[in-house]
Amino acid sequence: MNLGVLFSGGKDSTFACYRAIENNTVACLITLISENVDSYMFHTPNIRRTGLQAEAMGIPLFSWPTKGQKEEELVDLKDAIAAAREKYGIEGIVTGAIESVYQAARVQRICRDLDLWCFNPLWQINQVDYLRLLISDGFKIIISGVFAYPFDESWVGATLTEELVQKLEQLQKKYKINPSGEGGELETFVLDGPLFKKRIEILKASRTYENYRGHFIIDDARLVEK
Q: In terms of C-beta density within 10 A (0-12 exposed, 13-18 middle, 19 or more buried), how is residue 188 classed?
């Protein structure tokens, strides 16, 4: 089956693509470029770097703009999926949703309206086990944004390691956070993985942080041989 992956450049959409490609053909990655950094539906940190990831994986990228206004952005998403279907002949959509009913239900409704299959390979996965699976499968992931207490500045730009997973597990027990960031606590960016033919090397980056809200901004990057 030809599938399109809703792709943000973060760990969940990248791993969902990895799972989808095991038994299907991923015809394209679909990225919504939101003008609203606080979009309800769409990941925004380093979203304009998804082209580099798509090139690294050798999968076409289909980008679509949105102002990121609540509910109205769903119209943009539907338009983007319909246009991707027209261009790439996709028969289904892949999402990286884990527990977010808000996002999953809205994507499923759009797929139903467009008569497309909706595939959610990470749905209800144990989040801590999942983070360890990402590491063991060879994904190289950085924290591209934090948006909640108790994440301090040290998390911004940090690499996902076993030590970091242990910290996230402790924070889950103490503060009831979602260790994978499904509740909006953090965002990620994938630099390498088993689907990547080349890895991404960051040449220049900057950080912002204030009041438990921070971004790791990739200013310049390139693809290098693995």
A: buried
Helices and strands, counts by H and E, the chain: 6, 9
Tokens (6 digits) for 160: 């996902």
Distance in Å from the first CA to the final CA of the chain: 30
**For 2-119, which CATH superfamily applies?**
HUPs (3.40.50.620)
pLDDT string in tens for the chain (226-residue length) = 999 999 999 999 999 999 999 999 999 999 999 887 766 667 678 999 999 999 999 999 999 998 877 778 899 999 999 999 999 999 999 999 998 887 889 999 999 999 999 999 999 999 999 999 999 999 999 999 999 999 999 999 999 999 999 999 999 999 999 999 988 899 999 999 999 999 999 999 999 999 999 999 999 999 999 9
| Domain spanning 128-225, CATH architecture | Alpha-Beta Complex (3.90)
Q: What is the DSSP letter of 211?
A: T
pTM: 0.95
Name the strands in the sheet holding 2-6, side by side, starting at the edge strand that comes first in the sequence.
Answer: 61-66, 25-34, 2-6, 92-94, 117-119
Structural domain boundaries of the chain? 2-119, 128-225
Tokens matching residue 70: 């609540």
